[in-house]
Amino acid sequence: MKSVRKKALIAIIIEFFVFSFVGFSLVLMLFHAGILAFPVIAFMWTFWGFNVLTFFIGTEIKFRYKISFAVLNLLLVSLLIAFLINSAESTRNNTVQIVSIAVSIVVALLYLLVSILFVKHYWNPAKNEVLRLLGKNSPEPTAGQAACGLTHCYTDTRTGVLIENMKVYNYKSVKSIEKEGIIFSDGLKIIFQDCINGFKKNYNSFTNVSTCIAERNILVQPPYFQFYLDDMNVKIIFDCKGLFAKKRSIKLFQYFQLKIKSLGYKTFDLT
User: Are 226 and 161 in contact (CB under 8 A)?
Assistant: First the structure.
């Protein structure tokens, strides 16, 4: 987080002087028509504003949000200037006015959509950082988690028992699925044969589990696959963000299930 803030602070300082110089130069070059430089100025300073936001929340903001808001700001200011110039003319061009209003509505709708996606993605990091800066304490751990004392404590959804060494991965952390097992982005590899042995231990009353490597649950939020190993358990969750997140999570879950099935293994359905 410190490195993110440091990069943001450097960008804030550099962009402040560069954008000020470029903006002032454009206005001087255009002179009486200096107002025409405002869309470009709005476009540039949007990036500066996002760097200021990054500095305060300590979270890197994705470029797609920066460029989306920058382009929308450019369009919005351009439309405003076109509307003002047309209104100032002695004979107004109704076509220009109608087009400006129509495009403004489209831009406003795009603004709303991008803003919703942005807030949904960054609300929690921003809120947590604000609470931290205000000196608010984070929620107290449960009694079981406090007793466990590990970062990978997790409650088993089947038994309700606190597991002391559960490693939880987002589906994006799956680097590859091979015949022998699954490789994650942090280098961990789980072997399917070990998963079969672990599953048998946890479901010792079940028969015909010779190729069953995990349990799965598509009805909970987020859907997941859980693998039982000797030294720890591994859970892969499917928690897409943004528009149609639930639908995309289910599709990825089903694709993952079919991939495992194509390798000749089964998963136990908890639903």
Answer: no
Find out whether 158 and 206 touch, Cβ atoms under 8 Å: no
CA torsion through residues 145, 147, 153, 159, sign: negative
What DSSP letter does each residue of 160-175 carry, written as one string?
-PEESSEEEEEGGGEE
The whole-number pLDDT of residue 95 equals: 79
Quickly state the pLDDT bin for 136 (edges 50, 70, 90): low
DSSP code string of 207-228: SS-TTEEEEEESSSSS-EEEEE
Asked whether the beta carbons of 203 and 192 are under 8 A apart, the reply is no
Alpha helices in the chain (DSSP H): 2-30, 38-57, 63-88, 94-133, 143-148, 192-202, 245-262
In this structure, are residues 37 and 27 in contact, taking their beta carbons and an 8 Å threshold?
yes
- Give the Å distances, CA to CA, from 234 to 168, 194, 198, 220: 6, 12, 11, 17
Distance CA 243, CA 257 (A): 23
What pLDDT, on the 0 to 100 scale, is given for residue 86? 75
| Rounded Cα distance, 71 and 76, in Å | 9
CA dihedral defined by 53, 55, 60, 63, rounded to 10 degrees? 50
* Among the ranges given (3-17, 101-115, 147-161), the one the predictor scored with the smallest mean pLDDT: 147-161
Q: What residues pair up with 182 in beta bridges, in sequence order?
A: 177, 190
Whole-structure pTM value: 0.50
Round to whole Å and give the CA distance between 261 and 74. 50
